[in-house]
Amino acid sequence: MTDTAQMEREGARLALPVAEVDSGTLRFATADDTERALRIGAFNVAVPEGLDARAGLDFCRTFYEPGTGDPADRRRGHREHGHPASKLGYEDRPDQVEQLQLESFLWQAYLPDDVTAVLRRMRQLTLDVLYGVFDAAGVPGADRDLITGGAARDTGLCYTTVNHYRAGLSDRAGIVEHSDSGFITTICTDQPGYEILHEGRWLPVLERAGHFTVNLGDAFRVLTKNLPRPVTAVYHRVPELRPDAGVPDRSSFTVYMGPRYDMPLYQYDSGGKLREHQSFRAFSVEKAGKLGYDFHSRV
After folding, report:
1. DSSP-based three-state secondary structure for 148
2. How far is it, in rounded angstroms, from Cα 120 to Cα 114?
3. What is the DSSP letter of 214?
4. Contact present, 280 and 259 (Cβ < 8 Å)
5. pLDDT per residue over 182-191, tens digit each?
6. DSSP letter (8 states) at residue 128
7. Distance between start and end Cα atoms, the chain
8. What is the DSSP letter of 247?
9. How far apart are CA 75 and CA 43, in angstroms?
10. Which of 76, 107, 181, 215 is most buried, most CB within 10 Å of its CB?
């Protein structure tokens, strides 16, 4: 029975595969969950003991508010800040989302200390999960530093995306349907709304308490296309969100890892040899145009 048929039979949301990180090693609940995770391109990973994400969600609800004039206040004023050391920064998207994107080496400089602490824990979790998916897909250990630009040393591209969904903006998507460009994105959110295109249909995904959602992206899809266990880049969206009395706007934040914009995407050929595929920057610019928004002007 397909995942869609099972969901329709049970009258439930689509339940993603489940995993946890134990002593730095990614472990799925079952062998079938491993296969489904690669096929769907998304799964749930348990929040590690002692990681309290509330500081990150609280920051999502303030970062876009006007600054207070206090230089020490890092919770507000990010819309007008400029973040000159970042190539990303604040973005007002054409959907309901306004977002702040900051590279991992700038978290301490621009974000509150409690938010930085949460993101650092999530970064380590994301790295452990990334290497676990490499294991599942059969990506040789000797190649991983090259294809990620040094993710283990934090010299690849790693950043957080802080999202505020402006439900008052009507007649537009919550966030436009897309796949992520990098290898992996770990997502923490405070409300349902995440949907994936699965077996030809848009399906709402079951929210699992005590778990983050993991998206696998285009860099994985390109890399593993010709391997025996290719990885899917999950196509996902958040539909239009409408104001609900007494309910705050939807908030989410992520940790993303991918190649640097100054390096290539890599791909294994049919013989298992690693080759340069395309400039990651060129790939990202082309993709942004297809989605209807401008690529980061400082990159």
Report:
1. helix
2. 10
3. E
4. yes
5. 999 999 999 9
6. H
7. 45
8. B
9. 31
10. 215
